[in-house]
Amino acid sequence: MMLLSLFTVLFYMPLFVRSLLQSHSSYCSPRYIRHAPTTQLYISTKEMSEDVTTSISAPIDNRTVTILQRGPNHIVAWKPPAVVCHHSGWTGSRAKLKRGEEPEIPMLQRVRDALHDIDTRSVGEQEQQLPVRKVNLIHRLDRGASGCLLLTYADDADDDKSVDSNKSSTTATLIDALQSPDSIKTYVALVRGEGILRGEDFKEKGWFEVSRPIKDESGVEKDATTLFNFIGGQPESSDDNGVINRARMSIVLARPMQGRWHQIRRHLNGISHPILGDTTHGHSKTNRAWKETRNLPGERICLHLARMQIPPNDEIPEGLDVSCPLMDDMLDMLRVYAPDVLETALPKLKQEGILLDADREYEVGKYTIPEELLEVQLKNQMLNDDGKAEILLQGANFVIADKPPTVVAHHSSWTYTRSDPRRRWKEPTPMLQRVRDETGKRVNLIHRLDRGASGALLFAFAQDNNSENSEKASCSITKALIEAMQSKDATKTYLALCDGDGMWNGADYLNKGWFTFDNPVQDENGKYIEDCRTDFQFIASKTMPLKEGDADEGRKITIVLARPHTGRYHQIRQHLSSGTLGHAILGDSSHGRSRTNRLWKKKYNLMKERVCLHLIRLQVPATDYTDDIDVLSPLPPDLKKMLRIFPDLMEQARPILAKEGIIV
Description:
Blueprint: H1 2-24, H2 45-49, E1 53-54, E2 64-70, E3 75-79, H3 89-92, H4 107-123, E4 135-137, E5 146-153, H5 170-179, E6 184-192, E7 196-197, E8 200-201, E9 208-211, E10 214-215, E11 221-222, E12 225-234, E13 237-238, E14 244-246, E15 249-256, H6 263-270, H7 284-293, E16 303-310, E17 320-323, H8 328-337, H9 339-351, E18 362-366, H10 371-383, E19 390-394, E20 398-403, H11 413-418, H12 431-439, E21 443-445, E22 454-461, H13 470-486, E23 491-498, E24 503-504, E25 507-508, E26 515-517, E27 521-522, E28 528-529, E29 534-543, E30 556-564, H14 571-577, H15 594-603, E31 613-620, E32 629-632, H16 637-644, H17 647-659
Parallel strand pairs: 5-16, 22-31
Antiparallel strand pairs: 1-18, 2-3, 2-18, 3-5, 4-5, 6-15, 6-16, 7-8, 9-12, 10-11, 12-15, 13-14, 16-17, 19-20, 20-22, 21-22, 23-30, 23-31, 24-25, 26-29, 27-28, 29-30, 31-32
Helix pairs in contact: 1-8, 8-9
């Protein structure tokens, strides 16, 4: 029996991992395409413009909306779970922005932007001539639910009273059509319970009716009828040790005859079969068990509008019959925890026209997040710093952490007064303490990064509990890594955003490739150091147009790669700001241009106390205690936000970065 259990765990482990990844990443953004990879892949504007339809299994950028069907007067979008249909007083009070998370973008705005993106890609250079068309919701789905979402184009009559009043009835006509007795909305729900109540087996009844009044949000009681069909279920079972290996659950088809508040959820709870994940009408202990042990996502209600059928009407003369494939999360729960139930239900799902996989290609469009919301998100990310370290790579004797900007590598006399609790604010926890707390071991710094810089930071473990002389061993490890870092075989590749266009005093640095710069720099005391060398490559630049009344400063940006051979005080920053190169790093208050920095903070999201210098790749040769180290540090959110303003700049830089082994 133990061998059988071990085989079961190993067999289903990939599904556990995929479901867990989706629960933490894919529900924060709309990448809900059937079998799409969980990794975020970049699709260039050129690639996206080649075809506005995308295979359901194709890798897609994370801010996209899938359009299941559309016509002259209607749109059916694929709504993912954990996304609201529209803003309301309730969604406005959510604390996502305050926590520094991605702001709430409802389906109404997502679909509007996605349709505009699809249409503008189809007309190419005439993009600016197409206005953004507004859309209206015809019905709603609960935040945690998923499936078909019907919308229509908002008529121009809403804004222009001179337009024929008949056109303003599009939304009302479709609402009436959806509410007619001939319309059918078929939901798939995963519920607690095996389909038996007081000796009555629902699975043998086929379609049956539940009619119970339901109170709306105002407490007014209204008639409500729902048809249900229990198409598969299983009882709870345990192994020899009493551990539950089979949860009590069923698959239910539901067809509401009206659209009352939480109608399906309340009716299923009324027959003692609440929907899994329903925190309002469900069973809290069951939901907690599914979330903790069976990968049910936190904001998921296992209810999916799988098929929508509307009879012919004035706005859709041919009628509507559209299906939305079941979500991967619900399918994985069935495949892992109730495979027999799924197998039993498959014929009935097929008979009802429920899709498990997409049967064709769908249009996919991108949506955008307003810049003002991203600005608030970024500020709150810094305010809500949890003091934790993100580990990029860890070995037996070393660890590499991702240092965020505005965090010091270690405390010093300079940071002491800043962290004085009597001051209005205090210094964020230094990286040395963060890594120690994250790993549970004392660590030594191998190198440092400026407070305003970011990127990969290497530490050696300062103790070895397996060694008889741990103090001596940890000193040897630290010394070996410092020597390896200083050797000619070590490479530290920085990415810098600089003020300039790649030209200075007649020199074209953009077409120069890699070159070595060896001007002396000053140390902390103002003394010049001669032995100082840095390799640079200017890879992309952009100049913003000069608008009337604007100053000439702050219009130019260049992406530069830097590889220092020596580790002098502010070496890269001093070299780039020198009179020879003339490309000071943006945000550099010591060696840069203060007026330019102020303009970038005001207009282009440059973060306060930020130096736009990021250690993006760290390569260290092997030592007696460590193997070769080669690690990439992803661009932090603040730099991504700045570069998002200049998409053509990143298009220009990506091929060169890729040659250097850097993917952004």
